[in-house]
User: What shape does this take?
Amino acid sequence: MKNLKPITALTALTLAVMPAYSQSPKPHPEITSDTTSGNRVFPHLAAGGGWQTSVVLFNLGSTVANYTLRFYGDAGAPQAFPLGNLVTQEELGSQSVLTGQIPVGGIVVLVAENANNATTTGWALIDPASTGDIGGLVVFNYKPSGQQATIPAETATAQNFVLGYSNSQKNVTGVALTNPQANPVTVNLVVRDPNGATLATDQFMMSPFQHMSFVLPNRYPASNNEIGTVLVSTASTADAIAGVAILANSAGAYTTIFALTTQ
Assistant: This one.
């Protein structure tokens, strides 16, 4: 394939699910409010190497919301990202934890960008100690092409979820997974074709707060020139992880597609 800079960058931004799943049940019906329950997770961030990620927090309640936003790197340690506040136009410097307030009906937009360096990846968590009803999403911007896509925050409570993929017709899919738990989690993964036949299986351990991203056909060559699903499962809801995917094509366009819960 030619002109695949966004696809190469999928190892930095890796994510995807296919339009055929758009009529499936909403994966996380509770993601829009109530920060006091569950781990509110932004499962992928990328800054630098052409990538810019904006974290948008919404106050959905009737009182002022107080947030604590924590950023983590791939290995699970706190990761400082160079941040700016788009609303106030403040440069915040490199931060791994941010706190603040969101007025009633208001938003906060935090932009992670490092124009002069290689891509830094990781994820973010709205700390459960945050108060008020806070909704959130991230906006990915690949500045060389101007392409943008968004994903909502996930409340990581699904023991099993499915990501769709397409690695055919000049498409390629990347996947990002995040363990928001304070304990190691064993992850089982099954890659299937459109008829449900198994193409690859895998089992691996994710350490506490670890983030990983990969281009699906690179890690699982049997998925090359295929379309289908990736089933991700853990032992219990207490070990639930978060995931998302990106579908990119040779023209430089991409879209995010998020996880669908399954039995």
